[in-house]
Amino acid sequence: MGNYRRVTNERGEESFSKCGMYNISSQFNLASFPLQNDSKLQIVSCQYGWEYDRTWYTRTVVTQEDWVCEKELQVTNTFVFSRAGDVIGTFIFGQLGDMIGRRPVFFVTLFMLAVGRCITVFAAGSYPLFLAVTFIGSLSQSAAFQSPLVLGMEMSAENKRAQIAMLQCLGWTLGVCLMPMIAWVTGDWIAFIILTSAPCALFFFCYRLFPESARWLAAKGKTRRCARELRHIATVNGTFLPDDAMVKLKLIAAKKERIYGLASLFSNWRLAKNTVLIVYLWVVNSMTYYTLLLIVNSMAGNPFMNFFWQSLVELPGYIVGKFLSDRYGRRWSQSGMFAMLVAAVIIVIGVVRNPELGWLTTSLVVFVKFCFTITFYVIHLVAMETYPTCVRQSGTSLGAVVGSSMGILGPYIVYLGTVFDIRIPYLVIAIVSITGMAAALFLPETLHQRLPETLADAQTFGRDQKFWSLPEKPLDQEKTEMNEVPLKS
C-alpha cells in the first residue's frame, strides 16, 4: 500500500493516481520519508493491472483491452474513426442510391453494418484491425436509414409523406430507447453487439418482397421494371394501371436528363439556393443536437436510464412534428419551433448558474431537445420533398454528411462551458437557432406539392409561392393523390 501515489484530479480533489505509482523497494519505509520530498521518488506505471468499477457494466471493450492511462486516447480515436466512416459512407452510398437504386443500396449497407459490427468482436485484440473494422462497419450507419426512408416517401401519396417519415423516425427512436435497456441487461459489450446486429438478418429473408422505387425507375428510363413495380403496387392496393401507362412511362424516359452527382444540386439557381439552406439547417440541427446530448449525458445516476429518458422525449416530438407540418406547413412549423426553443434557451441562460433552479434548467433543456426533435424531423421531410427524384438521395445525404461533420463541434462547445462559463453552450445554441429560424423561412413550402421529378422541375419548384402565405389544402384531395402517381409526364 505504501507505493500508492496521491494526485489532484480534474475537480481539484486529492485522490490516488489511477495510472502511476511510486517505485519503492520493500526495505524502504515511506512513513519515515517527509511528504514534501515525495517528488524525488521514481514514478512508474501501474504494475499490477487495474480494478474497474463494474456497477453498471460487466465487460466493455475498454476494460477488456485496458484502454486506460497511456492507451486512453484509443477510445477517442475509435469514436473519430466511427464518425469518419459514417460521413464517408453517407457520401458514397447517397450517390449510389441515385445511380443503382434504393433497394440494392439498402441491402448492401445492411450487410456491411451487421457484419462489420460483429467482426469487431474478434478484432479487439489488434487495435489497428479494430479501427479498420470499426470504420468499415460505420460506413453504412446513416445510409441504411436513408434508403428505405427515401423509398417510402417516393412510393406514398402526398398526404401520407409526413406520416411515412414520422413512422420511420418513431422506429429509430424506439430502437434508441431499447438499446440502453439491452446494454443494461447484458452488461457485456460482445453480447450487446451480437444481439443488436442479429435482427438485420431478418430483412434478407424479405429480399424478394422489398420493392424498388417506381419514381427512380421512371427517372432512369427503366420503363419495363417500373411498370412491373407499378402493377405489383396496383395489385396490393386493389386497383389497376391505366391503359396508357407504358406510353406515359416512355414519355418520361424520353425526357431523361444527364446527372452529374452532387454537382447537379447546383445546376440552377433555385436548386442551389435550396441546397445551401437545407445543408445549413442540417448543420444547425446536428451541431446543437450533439451539444445537448453531451450536456444531458453529464448527469449523475444510472447511465442507461439517463440515455433512455433523453431518447424517450423524441417520441412525442415526432408525433407533434407530423401534426404541425401537416397542419401549418413545413416552413412555419420549423421556423416556429426554432423561435420557441430560442425563448427557452434565453431563460436557461438566465437561470443555469443558480443551483436552486436546477429543476427549471433541466426541464427547459428537455423542452429544447423536444423542439430540436421536431426541427430535425421537418428538415428530413423538407429535404426529401424539395430535391428532385434524380438526385433525392444524393441531396439528402449531402445534408447528413455536412451536418455530421459539423456535429463534432458539439464536444468543443460543451468544453467552453466547462472551462470558461456554463452559459456559453446555450448562448451558441440560441445564436445558431436564430439563423436557422430565418433559413427555414426561405425554403419553399412542400406541403400539398407534387414531388419534383427532374432538374427542370426543381428549377421552378416553389417559384409561385407567397412568402407570408400558409399552405392551402387542395379542394379535391383525390385529384392531388392522382398527381402523385409517377406516371405523370
Please name the defining characteristics of this protein.
single chain, 489 residues, mainly alpha, 3-stranded antiparallel beta sheet, 21 helices, disordered C terminus
Number of strands: 3
Give the overall form: globular
What order do the strands of the largest sheet run in, or round the barrel if closed? Answer: 1-2-3
SSE-based structural type: mainly alpha
- Terminal Cα span: 83 Å
Number of helices: 21
- What is the percent of helical residues? 55-70%
Main pleated sheet: 3 strands, antiparallel
Beta-strand residue percentage: under 5%
The succession of helices and strands, N to C, reads EEEHHHHHHHHHHHHHHHHHHHHH
Low-pLDDT ranges? 33-37, 478-489
Task: Provide mean pLDDT, rounded.
Answer: 82
- CA-based gyration radius: 27 Å
Quick structural gist:
By secondary structure, the protein is mostly helical.
Task: Explain the overall architecture.
The structure is a single chain. This protein is mainly alpha-helical. The chain has helices at 61-65, 73-100, 102-123, 127-138, 143-155, 161-186, 189-197, 201-204, 214-219, 223-237, 245-254, 269-297, 303-312, 314-327, 330-351, 358-386, 392-406, 409-419, 424-441, 455-460, 477-483, and strands at 4-8, 14-22, 43-45. Helix 2 packs antiparallel against helix 3, helix 2 runs antiparallel to helix 17 (392-406) and helix 3 (102-123) packs antiparallel against helix 7. The model is unreliable at 33-37 and 478-489 (pLDDT under 50).
